[in-house]
């Protein structure tokens, strides 16, 4: 009995519950620091929603000029996103994050001192390039540093910080709205430089991505990072073996530094994507670009950027009422994105995404109906005003619990290592182009087909997105990045094969 008891005690000690939290805390800290880059985009989106009210009055701009000013940063960010893939392969993920923060810092300062519309457009260009870099690199780095057990949780952090940035922007709007017309909006935009300074300092404490280190032949450094960011030494060894295999390094090689002869900086990637893709790569590309398209085409940036305008059409008259209601939108988005981070690795990507988009469809169609009723009524309908505000909050909440974070998690984890940087960059390009089109046309669209009609249109697009996600996106929960490619290539029939069965088993667990 004593021997059995001792054996039991020893076996329990072998699990040492203190080790796993320590290592996961290190990965958690790395993900936090990397994801802070997303605050830059969130703050810009949030602050512009209120700043445009005062920019329009101060610089005497038209609706079209405002649409261009707000939406053009999404197109400017394409430059940063397109450069980020090659840059991150060249100088590393970590220093690419520093570069993103530095560029945005310059853009925010320039926006804060803008004397006129052309100068403000130039400052938006600089900030947009920095945002493009940040959007691409944050999910890539976080995906590559995260252990499989909590990859979904950690990779959702960029979306968490986007929402946190939006909320900060909304609060900044309300706070600086009390200043003079000329100073208020410039302070709103200029304060955006503060997060980029904090980001640059925080990045100094981050390790480099282990996958990038292996691609550069620095196996010793990669091993140290993997030991700190894995749940066990066995897992760290398995992750290293998988990455070495993907990089073409023999598994038996144990040198700290090796020569990687087939290092890929993107030269053959585009051919593999577009000229002779395998069925799996083709499926991965369609899934990644599709999820980015439908995330933005369902109108989220129109709601976030033009919340004051939507609330004005719903019946809120004063600037203060509109900005306060907008702050409520920011709180709802932030609360539900935090809920999503805890569900991603428990529920799985697929069921959470389908539930989220279903809620978005309901919210958008109901919002379109309530705004149409208000638009056609001569009397003040308090129930319709309340319903409109409630549906805006419902829409951003259901978006944040699934479609928001899963887009970045899913698209950053499904690409093979050799294609990841460029694949993630393409996803960001689709995301930003779609967002740019939506944000640069929303006011004109709502004038043409009414604001209610615009939300009926977004609801229809979201329904198409639900069908696309149901048929095209396999579950990726619990799979290592290196085995992810095997889940793709069967399109709608994937759920009938082994991968689909495995996904169902994982969800059941």
Give an overview in words:
This protein has 509 residues and is mainly alpha-helical. The chain folds into 2 domains: 24-258, Growth Hormone, Chain: A (Up-down Bundle), CATH 1.20.1250.20; 276-487, Growth Hormone, Chain: A, CATH 1.20.1250.20. Helices cover 78% and strands 0% of the residues. The chain is built from 23 helices and no strands. The radius of gyration is 24 Å and the shape is globular. It starts with a helix and ends with a helix. Mean pLDDT is 81; it is low at 5-23 and 492-509.
Which blocks of ≥5 consecutive residues have pLDDT under 50? 5-23, 492-509
What is the percentage of strand-forming residues?
under 5%
Output mean pLDDT: 81
- Supply the CATH architecture of the largest domain: Up-down Bundle
What structural class results from the helix and strand content? Answer: mainly alpha
> How many structural units, i.e. domains?
2
State the total count of DSSP E strands. Answer: 0
Number of helices: 23
How far is the first residue's CA from the last residue's CA?
35 Å
Radius of gyration: 24 Å
Within CATH, the superfamily of the largest domain carries the name MFS general substrate transporter like domains
Shape assignment? globular
Query: In percent, how helical is the residue content?
Result: over 70%
Largest sheet: none
CATH topology of the largest domain: Growth Hormone, Chain: A
